[in-house]
Design brief:
There is one protein chain. The protein has about 280 residues and is of the alpha/beta class. It has two domains: about 1-60, no CATH class; about 120-275, 3-Layer(aba) Sandwich (Rossmann fold). Helix content is about 30%, strand content about 30%. The protein is built from nine helices and 14 strands. The strands form four sheets. A seven-stranded mixed beta sheet has the order 10-9-8-11-12-14-13, with helices on both faces. Strand 2 (about 25-30) and strand 3 form a beta hairpin. Helix 4 packs parallel to helix 6 (about 150-160) and helix 8 (about 215-225) runs parallel beside helix 9.
Length: about 280
């Protein structure tokens, strides 16, 4: 779907508008948003109906559909997934990676259809943020919001968190997170749930991690703040450096103090603290 004029924000608006169509995943490749859906569930008429209803969105969308031939996706994924080492301290690998040099923390994942292999800059920075704040994680209650494959929840558990929770709005991700926690022998310390930020009312957290996207963060940061204990830490990523003022503004209004930030290739990760 070609977006004119293209922007990340317009792509996010389009994804939200397509919520009722059962797309399994999206990728943003400027100037297009690519959506993937099983052939039997695709309806060009339904898609056109949704797009025709976006006349006042401020941008136009042209679409074409292409049938993707059958492929051994597991073999392709194995070919493309290389191990990641974060600051020499944490290795993220797949089950088929053998004989790697061990680091202090070693995480094995099987992403299946869930997001998160550690390759994206935001996941890398969130891992680095955890590693830099080990004293604030050990013995604490940690929440991984939008957990995907649960890399962050698993790392927190391996770093000695007393208990870690993972929440993802995607049921496949929630199951994948549980399976990966078991694979890494931390399932006794990691609980995963399918849902949104409303589930945060289950308890209070010392550390909350949210690697999602700008619009959801802006909407949910007030909820994150209410869910944090006094003196607790919030780490957020999934947005660009130019979005920092907007994120920091919402955080400040929610009683959170900016501590520091990290950037990789214009992606950003920010650390906030809740006043005591």
């Amino acid at each position: 779907m070609k977006i004119t004029p293209f922007s990340e924000e317009n792509a996010e608006i389009l994804m939200a508008e397509l919520d009722e169509i059962p797309f399994e995943s999206f990728t943003v490749e400027e100037p297009c948003l690519k959506g993937y859906i099983p052939k039997e569930q695709y309806s060009a008429q339904m898609l056109k109906l949704v797009l025709d209803g976006m006349d006042e969105s401020g941008f136009t969308v042209e679409f074409i559909s292409t049938l993707i031939p059958p492929c051994n996706w597991n073999a392709l994924w194995e070919e493309q997934f290389t191990p990641i080492v974060v600051d020499g301290k944490c290795t993220i690998k797949a089950t088929f990676h053998k004989g790697l040099k061990r680091t202090r923390f070693n995480i094995t994942i099987d992403p299946k259809m869930a997001f998160g292999t550690g390759h994206h800059q935001t996941t890398y920075m969130m891992c680095r943020a955890l590693l830099e704040n080990e004293d604030s994680v050990r013995g604490k209650i940690v929440m991984d919001m939008g957990c995907g494959t649960a890399i962050l929840a698993i790392l927190a558990a391996k770093m000695g968190a007393a208990h870690t929770y993972g929440i993802d709005i995607d049921a496949v991700a929630a199951v994948s997170a549980f399976d990966n926690a078991r694979l890494n022998k931390v399932s006794r310390h990691v609980e995963t749930y399918c849902g949104d930020a409303s589930l945060l009312q289950m308890g209070k957290y010392d550390v909350l991690l949210a690697n999602i996207n700008r619009n959801i963060l802006i909407e949910d940061i007030p909820t994150y703040s209410r869910s944090l204990k006094k003196g607790g830490l919030l780490f957020v990523s999934g947005f660009y450096e130019e979005d920092m003022p907007m994120i920091c503004g919402v955080a400040a209004k929610s009683g959170l103090e900016y501590m520091k930030h990290d950037c990789m290739d214009n992606w950003c990760c920010i650390k906030f603290s809740k006043g005591r």
